[in-house]
Amino acid sequence: MKRFSEFILEARVSQAATKAHKLGLTGDGHGYWIDKQQKRVARTYKGQLEFISGKKKNNLDLSSGDRDDWDRQWSSLEDYLSWTKTYLELAYGQLKPNGSLYLCISWQNSPHIHLLLEECNFFIQNRITWKRDKGRGSQKNWKSMHEDIFFCTKHPSDYTFNVDDVKIKKKVLAPYKTETGENKDWWIDQDGQKVRLTYPGNLWDDFCVPYWSMHEVKSYAKTKKTPHNTLQKHNTQKPKDLVKRCILASSNRGDLVVDYFSGSGTTAIASRELDRNSVVFDINKTCIDILETRIKSEITAH
Fold first, then answer.
1. Are the beta carbons of 67 and 98 closer than 8 angstroms?
2. Which of 48, 99, 225, 233 could form a disulfide with 221 if both were Cys (CB 3.0 to 4.6 A apart)?
3. Rounded Cα–Cα distance for residues 168 and 166 (Å)
4. Per-residue pLDDT for 66 more than 60?
5. What percent of the chain is modeled with pLDDT above 90?
6. What angle do helix axes 240-250 and 266-273 make, rounded to 10 degrees?
7. Treating both helix axes as pointing N-terminal to C-terminal, what angle do 266-273 and 285-294 enclose, rounded to 10 degrees?
8. 269 near 302, Cβ under 8 Å?
9. Is the distance from CB of 16 to CB of 41 less than 8 angstroms?
10. Confidence tier at 299 by pLDDT (50, 70, 90)
């Protein structure tokens, strides 16, 4: 198994990209970097990307596990929105004419992000609701149990969407037969259930695995079941299968996937497993350590 890493360079990296802090590069074009000058690196890929994934900025020290100030990285809402607009404008310039962008955000900021996406000339094709099992309850409010994922494109109708690759297996309540007595678009699965494939919707409730139970977390983080690990859990890690669904729908094998905010490295791992190239950035050395550990635990096993 070839070594995989956080930053897939291909043959298109110009001298400007070397302004980033290089952590490593392998002979097959796979490398991992910490981005120091995202604007300059971003311009290297102008109009070349099929798929971009976006999450929030992460410049905290994750090594201690103290993340109480996670959402207090910006001095004001205006500061946060200004920074967000900067990377959305860069993303728009980087995307190919038929490229797509997925942006996962807390519901509290969704109204602002919606407006910014339109201001940056993206076409919002959908807003997906992801039901997640994470977060604490409240004595004076409803427990927050979902996040929004914006699916956006650069062109209103010319973009990749592999619907057959992301259809959902669903239990059949009314198993119809054809005139000849054959099953009509359904079959009996290995569990004896009558099922069929249905078109995917924008309510995703099948990735609701408790955060601390995900294999991708235990592959690197110190938990009760993995006391030998030394790294702390990344507290905004997304399920790998969720990321894979986005990648499967909006890219093809060999396409280039970009994640501006790698975090725990899920986009890079998922891209590798789906035979996509990827470029991911992070300014935090601990995130690179997490990714390297996950490579050994997940990619090698895959």
1. no
2. 233
3. 6
4. no
5. 34
6. 60
7. 30
8. no
9. yes
10. confident
| Rounded-to-integer distance, Cα 198 and Cα 173, Å | 13
Contact between 256 and 53 (Cβ < 8 Å): no
Amino acid, single-letter form, for residue 284 = N
Answer yes or no: are the C-beta atoms of 9 and 29 closer than 8 Å: yes
For 56, the token pair is 């929030």
β-pair type (194-198, 168-171): antiparallel
Region of 129 on the Ramachandran plot (φ > 0 left; ψ -120 to 50 alpha; else beta) = beta
Contact 59, 260 (CB under 8 A): no
> How far apart are the C-alpha atoms of 117 and 109, rounded to whole Å?
12
- pLDDT level of residue 119 (50, 70, 90 thresholds): very high
Note the Cα 260 to chain centre separation in Å.
10
How many helices and strands, by DSSP H and E, does the chain display? Answer: 7, 13
DSSP letter assigned to residue 298: I
Residue 128, both tokens: 């997906």
Residues in the chain: 302
